[in-house]
Amino acid sequence: MSKxxxxxxxxxxxxxxxxxxxxxxxxxxxxxFCYHERLSIAGNCRMCLVEVKGAPKPVASCAQQVKDxxxxxxxxxxxxxxxxxxxxxxxNGVMEFLLINHPLDCPICDQGGECDLQDQAMAYxxxxxxxxxxxxxxxxxxxxxxxxxxxxxCIQCTRCVRFITEVAGVPEIGATGRGEDMEITTYLEAxxxxxxxxxxxxxxxxxxxxxxxxAFNARPWELKKTESVDVMDALGSAIRIDARGEEVLRVxxxxxxxxxxxxxxxxxxxxxxxxxxxxxxxxxxxxxxxxRAATWDEALxxxxxxxxxxxxxxxxxxxxxxxxxxxKATLDLFRALGSPNxxxxxxxxxxxxxxxxxxxxxxxxxxxxxxAILLVGTNPRIEAPILNARIRKAWLRNNARxxxxxxxxxxxxxxxxxxxxxxxxxxxGAFARALGDAKKPLVVIGAAVxxxxxxxAVLHALGALTLKRNGWNxxxxxxxxxxxxxxxxxxxxxxxxxxxxxxxxxxxxxTLLALGVDEVDLPxxxxxxxxxxxxxxxxxxxxxxxxxxAYTEKCATWVNTExxxxxxxxxxxxxxxxxxxxxxxxxxxxxxxxxxPYDDLTALRAKMIADHxxxxxxxxxxxxxxxxxxxxxxxxxxxxxxxxxxxxxxxxNPIARASMTMAACxxxxxxxxxxxxxxx
Amino acid sequence: xxxxxxxxxxxxxxxxxxEAMPEVERQLAKFPPxxxxxxxxxxxxxxxxxxxxxxxxxxxxxxxxxxxxxxxxLEVATFYTMFHLEPRxxxxxxxxxxxxxxxxxxxxxxDVCLRRIGKKFVVRGDGAFSWEEVECLGGCVNAPVVAIDxxxxxxxxxxxxxxxxxxxxxxxxITPGSARGxxxxxxxxxxxxxxxxxxxxxxxxxxxxxxxxxxxx
Lengths: 680, 217
What we know:
heterodimer, A: 19 helices, 28 strands, B: Arc Repressor Mutant, subunit A, Glutaredoxin
């Protein structure tokens, strides 16, 4: 630790702290534009100037470290001043220069109200302008369907350049020209290809990069902000849902060091307009082959009739967006009816029974510490872009060596390609030693591997690797479904002698209750009751549609791929006549004469916690404490190569498929891919 | 200086000619394999040497050669004004217009260029010449200076410049340096000071007392 005097107060900070960090630790506020904790230091905005005793000029505090300061006279501690007249004047001057070429268009700027430049100009700016010349104007750049640019507003902090290059790992933004003519652009104005691209909007301290879908929609102070959890992938990123009235207008990231730091994927951010389209806002019943709008009474009556037959001939499947409450209610209802036919693995996956066998045991934050990472049957870049950014961080900062068994993809980091199929697991070559020697080895298995017929053999082969260290379990499953771990924790799997998803989807039951199952074809025979939110694949097949609430419209419990239980909060009410899912199931249970023993959410959650204690601990990832899992059995490998379950990142669930923004992104990505093929 | 953009019309592709390859290899060999990106400026120079300007396909080709992102090469190419982003004439004149040259008649040289070649940055109809005004070339002592292709031509009068243009147009080679026959920046007509031959024959040598010198040494 190094001692330093900040504004006359002595503090003790790590020697590699920058002066800016030391000042913050001492409680002084340092304005900044270019500096960002998670990006490299550029030192080009000059807003963070401070006075250092003995230095002839003000010092950019973001770019000097505490250990580089020499002692003041008579071996006194180095002295830094953050609010002296010199500092005030210096910041005043910097702000004046920044504003010279910045347009006065705050009234029509989407950043207004949440603009660093606006805020800091209030604190440090002069009252008026002394600049009589013409202001510079810059042509706007096309950065794709998500990022709207008004480049005249750009102050060249280069945060976007550094983010895309360092965190997203797709170096596409750069600063061309120099001096007054410096411009931020992509190469030939190509659309950004990163799945994390829209984070540059949050990073931009001014209104140069703003959100295209949200352009001119609202002012930040009009919005009701709800802190919730994302369900677009299985990571459960922390999000803030901004809504006005009954409309979700945008989704922003929330800080959660354990999961998403402060980034979210483009899908998390922009699938939100899918919440307004293709919605099921009233019950439907199929009459003479056609879906007809019905009342709740009719629909629930029809559903109860369909479910009241032979208990062995009814079944329930849970899709990717089913919350724990709805699965718990379904499970309790089916067990009460005497049916063992329940499954949350609609893809036919078979996970180990022990919790450690199906969660991400190293935790997402633990990826940062890993020094050897083996990806098996997964493409994290499209299955969980936030996790991919973590792996890239481990590769960059921790020198982690990465091996891939599975699809060969552009992952934003260099890796040893070991093979496409499970056969290559027999001999990992040099990588086996890298894993063995690693202090914190990490194996990430895609959830799709568990749906293979040779899942047992694959797991057995991986179980042979030594992945345990003291307090560290390197066996990790990367799910793609926000519902899956919750379903597995609840035991939403076939009961004794029950039919599994494969049997049910092949038409093994007469009545199938589908909780938002849209990624597979539901059976053509029998009665299908669909409880969901969107008119997607499942609803098209359904005989009875019970409209439920999307993740922004209900208080729900989600369990992420680490086994971390999180509560999502309601930002708006369900659309039209739709209801929160568990209340529908509760009403249905009453019709069936098996009334579920809970009348409100608190009681339901209490029952859930009583039956499954893991739900009692919020925001806790067990990590290595999850214990051991018995992994697989010996068996023959299947010749088929591993494949990622995600084919199009932008269209993985009904909400994303209903979103115009996601459709535009998918189109841009397809054009990029075909252009690449044409070039080769 | 105004915003520098890539030319609207671009060739379909770029490749170094075979005779340029030894120099390309030599430049690449200067840097360790994981620092290949350091060769970006030399390679852009070689592109410009070969084509006369830096085209978009060339930027892509260099990015591929050096394992860099295309945008990084574009950043470098647009940063340095000496990389031409649009086609130039076979001979490109850079007329220094900074104060010392301006005082010594650069304005008249610009008039010659305007009359003989045309507007700045516009290639003459026959493709032979283009010109631009640049900031200080650092040859102030021999002002006014015009850099034609790779070499400085100094002490130019408007007539000298016209003659140079005529020679180049006729396919002749021109000699760089002072148009008035000065040796580098030495005075015209030879040295005017330190001309006494006694300065150089040792006759003026005097013993020098150096501090800290041992006695009798």
